[in-house]
């Protein structure tokens, strides 16, 4: 019997987070160049206007690297917070260099992040407070995991989304020249919905890692506690399935409120946004298809879903 060739030893968490390798093909690679991580949506795909692709990729890489610092590998909470503080300091220096119009030297620790990001800030006058908001979300995530904090309500969870997800949509609208209040609100709704969908998709991953986003008010309506979801080996009870179904329905409602934005964003970017919306909705359908047992099994998008997403995007 043949054996697979052993893989080389994995890099340490510190080296992996620092390296931030160039993107590789991902699950949705057919929609774009791939981003090295599974995502429920296209990132800098061929639908993105070519002149904006490097900037979109730079924003994604900045956020993804910070996210990896916050929750990948085996580092303790204090080390993660120290790394995020160093990352924020590097962001501040990157912003300062971009404002001065100087040639931007690469960061020693995260050169593939802050070199392209500095160019993007200088070229497009990005609203840099939104980049700091993203880092605040990752820092909150680390602190809350250390403290075993439990979100009291969906409203509190949406407060987290305002830092963790909504800034990305607002940065993209800035690139597309869309600034009106209605569009910003709908962008926030789409981004918050995507974040919530990711939470309910990842219950089986997050809970064993001590990350919990289940809001206490929803659990209380079903007579449940977080501990009820921490035993995936037990049969799925109707009350647990009903709680996840309620959370998914709320996320779907948010997505549907924001979805009309995709028809107003101009050109190819609007078509990419349609696929973003449809990717989120398809994950909700997949969770429903497993009877909302997402604390037991994790659903993902597959290449076979792409024609379905494209068809639904066409008729939005």
Classify the helix fraction into a percent range.
55-70%
Order of helices and strands: HHHHHHHHHHHHH
* Overall strand count: 0
Through-space gap between termini? 52 Å
How would the global form be characterised? globular
Largest sheet, if any?
Answer: none
Mean pLDDT across residues: 85
CATH superfamily of the largest domain: Farnesyl Diphosphate Synthase
The CATH architecture of the largest domain can be given as Orthogonal Bundle
What does the radius of gyration come to?
20 Å
Which regions have little confidence, pLDDT < 50, spanning 5+ residues? 1-35
- Give me the secondary-structure category: mainly alpha
Q: Helical region count? A: 13
CATH topology of the largest domain: Farnesyl Diphosphate Synthase
Question: Approximately what portion of the residues adopt beta-strand conformation?
Answer: under 5%
Q: What is the C-level CATH assignment of the largest domain?
A: Mainly Alpha
User: What's the structural domain tally?
Assistant: 2
In brief:
This protein is mainly α and 316 residues long.
What this model shows, in words?
The chain has helices at 13-19, 53-71, 77-99, 111-124, 129-147, 154-164, 166-176, 181-201, 203-206, 216-221, 238-258, 267-289, 306-314. It folds into two domains: 48-149; 150-316, Farnesyl Diphosphate Synthase (Orthogonal Bundle), CATH 1.10.600.10. α2 runs parallel beside α5. It is globular, with a radius of gyration of 20 Å. It is mainly alpha-helical.
How does the SSE layout of this entry go?
Elements: H1 13-19, H2 53-71, H3 77-99, H4 111-124, H5 129-147, H6 154-164, H7 166-176, H8 181-201, H9 203-206, H10 216-221, H11 238-258, H12 267-289, H13 306-314
